[in-house]
């Protein structure tokens, strides 16, 4: 079933989903309170909420959201497992969260469902604008419980990129009907398998769920055309190669051809072809100027999606001292964004910021590899005995080779899970001592003076003002969570 978008007011601006926890509920809520679309990141939200709870849920917001979760007993179990009123014993000493697999343990499914519910519920609380959740197609194992939690909280839009999300619209329909369903898991050297999910995990009086819009994030008109033929897609985010986070690889580019992907005329997206599909679309990548929305509209787009400008504003989930340092270096023009061809274990080009004291400021080899402790970017492979195993090209080479991986795949890989969690203020302890360095992904941090206007910091409203978004205010009750 496709949502009829002709009757609903579409936003001109979508605040891009930014993982891990950079676009958390605070940022999404700030944008939605101005009537535009705020998007929370669903990536590793289970881990993020487990960390926040272990740090004592200092602002009490997770416990507020827990009280609204439809299954009180499940919410209580999650809090009993993860909430530590006294906080962490020492920096980085988080209790490990189990890794996702084909049949994840029930407590992990409960945590993931609960966590995405909380994130969306908090973002949506008393605001007028729509709230979406962003997920990466490439990360498959946690997708269904995270989607279901978001649906239970009434998420308005699901946005998905980093892959070809053909199956997702049908799965959203099944989850909206609280039906058991299964997601196909790609297995690197064998036949794909299914990861089942049964929504009856959540008991009690369940709400009737409305079907959210589904927006696919694409970097080519060919993919947009193909997805529109598969059905269930309500629109597109059309993302160019300068956007922060992961990018699509240039056409014909192979990772062996060099670390820095170069984009050329073959990578240009034919917007006329996308327009001819008759679905709304938003342009992403360097679209944060006062004229960006008007220019996008002139090209037939509904508006724009913006990430980087929001990633460094005060409501961002980026650890504050890191964020302030990045702003200061950017103002001093001493900061560069690099597109790393080999950095991400996903195999997609990934943008990193060369900020000192972060992974992007040093070579990938400078971090001692550790056995994978979050597992979000692991790939499934078929073992000799026929069972499914998991490997990540950023884990210790010996482990990866033992699992049948190739040494060449390990070169230049960074541990994104740990680096990005550290960027969000959740650095985990390393085995040999010390804590993980942050890894900052970003698009081009252009002329921050536009948002700062002489101040030392800026917030989401400054970005919205710069983009010419009219002021809309949250209801009075909305002040309760600040
Ligand atoms: C810090 C950061 C993290 C991002 N993470 C994701 C992500 O998890 N999923 C995704 O689809 N896009 C991600 N993006 C891309 C944004 O959603 C958005 O499309 C992009 O930032 C727009 O380009 P801009 O950065 O030039 O504004 C990320 C961008 C940034 C800056």
The end-to-end span amounts to 37 Å
> What is the CATH class name of the domain at 13-317 and 450-469?
Alpha Beta
Bound molecules: flavin mononucleotide
Mean pLDDT: 92
- List unreliable stretches of 5+ residues: 1-7, 474-482
User: What kind of sheet is the major sheet?
Assistant: 8 strands, parallel
Helix content: 25-40%
In quaternary terms, these chains amount to single chain
CATH architecture of the domain at 13-317 and 450-469: Alpha-Beta Barrel
Tally of DSSP helical segments: 17
- What is the CATH T-level topology of the domain at 13-317 and 450-469? TIM Barrel
Provide the spatial order of strands within the biggest beta sheet.
1-10-9-8-7-4-3-2
Shape: globular
Give the DSSP E fraction (strand runs of 2 or more residues).
Answer: 5-15%
Radius of gyration in whole Å, from Cα?
A: 21 Å
Number of strands: 14
The computed structural class is alpha/beta
Explain what the structure shows.
Mean pLDDT is 92; it is low at 1-7 and 474-482. The longest helix has 19 residues, at 106-124. With 482 residues, this protein is an alpha/beta fold. The protein has a domain at 13-317 and 450-469: Alpha-Beta Barrel (TIM Barrel), CATH 3.20.20. The two termini are 37 Å apart. It is globular, with a radius of gyration of 21 Å. The chain has helices at 25-32, 45-54, 61-68, 72-82, 106-124, 143-152, 168-176, 221-230, 271-275, 292-298, 308-311, 320-331, 397-402, 407-410, 416-423, 449-452, 460-466, and strands at 13-15, 38-41, 131-136, 157-161, 181-185, 193-197, 213-218, 235-239, 281-284, 303-306, 337-340, 350-353, 379-382, 388-391. Strands 1-10-9-8-7-4-3-2 form an eight-stranded parallel β-sheet. A two-stranded antiparallel sheet has the order 5-6. Strand 8 (235-239), helix 9 (271-275) and strand 9 (281-284) form a beta-alpha-beta unit. 29% of the residues lie in helices and 13% in strands. Helix 4 packs across helix 5. The structure holds flavin mononucleotide. Residues 16-19, 22, 41, 43, 134, 136, 161, 217, 239, 242-245, 284-286, 288, 305-308, 311, 441-443 line the site of flavin mononucleotide.
């Amino acid at each position: 079933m496709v949502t009829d978008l002709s009757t609903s007011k579409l936003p001109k601006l979508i605040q891009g989903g930014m993982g891990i926890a950079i676009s958390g509920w605070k940022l999404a809520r700030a944008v939605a309170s101005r009537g535009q679309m705020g998007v929370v990141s669903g990536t590793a939200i289970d881990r993020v909420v487990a960390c926040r709870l272990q740090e004592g849920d200092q602002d009490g917001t997770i416990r507020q959201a827990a009280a609204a979760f439809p299954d009180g007993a499940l919410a209580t179990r999650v809090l009993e497992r993860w909430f530590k009123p006294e906080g962490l014993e020492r920096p980085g000493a988080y209790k490990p969260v189990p890794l996702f697999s084909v049949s994840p343990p029930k407590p992990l499914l409960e945590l993931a469902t609960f966590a995405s519910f909380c994130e969306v519920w908090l973002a949506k609380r008393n605001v007028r604008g729509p709230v979406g959740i962003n997920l990466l197609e490439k990360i498959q194992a946690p997708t269904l419980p995270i989607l279901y939690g978001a649906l239970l909280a009434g998420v308005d839009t699901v946005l998905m990129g980093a892959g070809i999300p053909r199956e997702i619209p049908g799965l959203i329909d099944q989850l909206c009907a609280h039906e058991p369903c299964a997601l196909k898991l790609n297995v690197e050297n064998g036949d794909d398998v299914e990861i089942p999910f049964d929504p009856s995990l959540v008991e009690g009086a369940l709400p009737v769920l409305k079907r959210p819009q589904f927006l696919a994030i694409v970097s080519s008109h060919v993919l947009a055309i193909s997805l529109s033929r598969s059905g269930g897609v309500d629109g597109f985010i059309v993302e160019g190669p300068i956007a922060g986070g992961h990018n699509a690889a240039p056409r014909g580019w192979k990772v062996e051809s060099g670390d820095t992907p170069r984009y050329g005329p073959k990578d240009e997206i034919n917007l006329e072809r996308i327009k001819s599909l008759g679905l709304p679309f938003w342009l992403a990548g360097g679209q944060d100027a006062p004229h960006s929305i008007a220019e996008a509209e002139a090209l037939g787009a509904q508006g724009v999606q913006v990430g980087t400008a929001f990633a460094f504003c005060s409501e961002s989930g980026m650890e504050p001292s890191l964020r302030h340092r990045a702003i200061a270096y950017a103002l001093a023009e001493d900061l560069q964004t690099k597109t790393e061809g080999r950095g991400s274990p996903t195999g997609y080009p990934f943008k990193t910021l060369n900020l000192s004291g972060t992974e992007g400021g040093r070579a990938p080899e400078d971090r001692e590899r550790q056995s994978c402790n979050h597992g979000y970017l692991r790939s499934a492979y078929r073992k000799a005995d026929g069972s499914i195993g998991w490997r990540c090209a950023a884990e210790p080479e010996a482990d990866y080779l033992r699992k049948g991986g190739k040494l060449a795949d390990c070169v230049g890989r960074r541990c994104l899970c740990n680096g990005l969690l550290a960027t969000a203020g959740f650095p985990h302890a390393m085995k040999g001592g010390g804590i993980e360095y942050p890894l900052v992904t970003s698009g081009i941090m252009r002329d921050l003076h536009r948002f700062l206007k002489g101040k030392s910091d800026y917030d989401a409203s400054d970005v919205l003002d710069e983009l010419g978004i009219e002021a809309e205010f949250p209801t009075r009750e909305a002040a309760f969570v600040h």
